[in-house]
Amino acid sequence: MRTDYGEVLREIADAVGKLEKSGEVAHYIPALAKVDPDQYAMFAEIPGKECHGVGAVDTVFSIQSISKAITLAMVIEKKGESLWERVGVEPSGNAFNSLFQLEREMGKPRNPFINAGAIVVADELLSLYDDAKGHLLQLARELAGDETIDYDVEVAKGEMATCHTNYSLAHFLKSHGNLRNRVEDVIELYCYQCSLTMSARTLARSFSFQCSDGVIPYSGRRFLTASQSKRLNSVMLTCGFYDQAGAFAYQVGLPGKSGVGGGIVAVVPGFMSVAVWSPRLNKYGNSVLGIESLERFTTKTNLAIF
Ligand code: DON
C-alpha cells in the first residue's frame, strides 16, 4: 500500500509535541538566543513528485552548520579529492568546536563538518572564487529553487563579534600552514555561511540534489557527479552530527546534517529529503525533537538505508 507521508508527518508532530520539553536554544550566538524555542516544522520532498509538511514549514531559521554540507559540496565540485590533503574524513568523537584534537593532529582537522574542517573548506572557497559569499548565496538559491534565500546579517555580525573559539581554530590552522587566506576573511565567510536562512521547506528542497545523484532538480543542472554525491552523503552519515554521529546513524539510519539553529536535514538517497526544525538543542548542539522526529520517521516508513 502507498505510504501517506503527509499523515506520517502529522502523526510524528502530534506525538513529539506531547513529549516533555528538553534542551536549550543556542545562547552563545546573540541573535539565536532570542528565538522562540518551541517552534516546530517538518517537511519531506520527493523531488518532482510529492511534498508534505507539518507545522511552521515556511518560517525561516538560521541553518548554521548545515551550510557546511553545501560549502563542502562546492569544494568537492571544483577540487575533487585534493581537499582531503588538508582535511580528514573520519568522525571526530569530539565537540564541533574542539581545539585540543586539532592540536594533537598537527593542524589537520578530522573532518569537514567540525568547525576547524569547515574553516579550511571556507578558506578553499575564498581561494576558488573572487566572490565566494555571492557565489554561495547564488548556489543556495539554485539548490532550493527559491530566490528569497538570504544571509541574516544580524546573525553573521553577532557571531563574528563573539566567536573567539573559531578565531582560535583559524589562527591555529594558520600557524600550521593550513589556512591560505587572512583569518578575518575566512571567519567572515564562515559566519555568513552559517547565517544563511531557510525554512523547513527550502532546507529539504536544498538537499534534493543529494537524492538525485547530484543533479539539482529545480535547475536541471548536474552539480555533483553521482560518485561525489555518494561521498557527500557518506560524510554526512559518518560526521554530520559530531560526537553524536554514531547515535544518529544508529537511531535514524540516514545521512544528515544538523545546525545549532535547530535544523536538521536528512537524505534518503535516490528518493527523498526531509527537514525538521525545532530550536531546543541537546548537549551536542543537535536538535532534540529533530532527531526524535527523524527516528520516528524512519521507523514508521522503513526508509532508513539499512
Ligand atoms: O561556529 C559555530 O559555532 C556555529 N556558527 C555553527 C555551529 C553549529 O551549527 C554546530 N552544529 N550543530
Mean pLDDT: 97
Number of strands: 8
Order of SSEs:
HEEEHHHHEHHHEHHHEEEH
Query: Share of helix among residues?
Result: 40-55%
> Strand percentage, roughly?
5-15%
Family: Belongs to the glutaminase family.
Catalytic activity: L-glutamine + H2O = L-glutamate + NH4(+)
Pfam families: Glutaminase (PF04960)
Binding site for substrate: 65, 115, 159, 166, 190, 242, 260
List keywords for this structure.
five-stranded antiparallel β-sheet, alpha+beta, binds 6-diazenyl-5-OXO-L-norleucine, three-stranded antiparallel β-sheet, 11% strand, 12 helices
Question: Care to describe what's here?
Answer:
Substrate binds at residues 65, 115, 159, 166, 190, 242, 260. Homotetramer. It comes from Pelagicoccus enzymogenes. Pfam families: Glutaminase (PF04960). Keywords: Acetylation, Hydrolase. The chain is of the alpha+beta class and 306 residues long. The chain has a single domain (5-301), classed as DD-peptidase/beta-lactamase superfamily (Beta-lactamase, 3-Layer(aba) Sandwich). Helix content is 43%, strand content 11%. The chain has twelve helices and eight strands. The protein has a five-stranded antiparallel β-sheet, sandwiched between helices. Helix 1 (5-16) crosses helix 12. The longest helix is centred in the middle third of the chain and has 14 residues, at 115-128. It starts with a helix and ends in a 5-residue tail after the last helix. 52% of the residues are buried. The mean pLDDT is 97. The structure holds 6-diazenyl-5-OXO-L-norleucine.
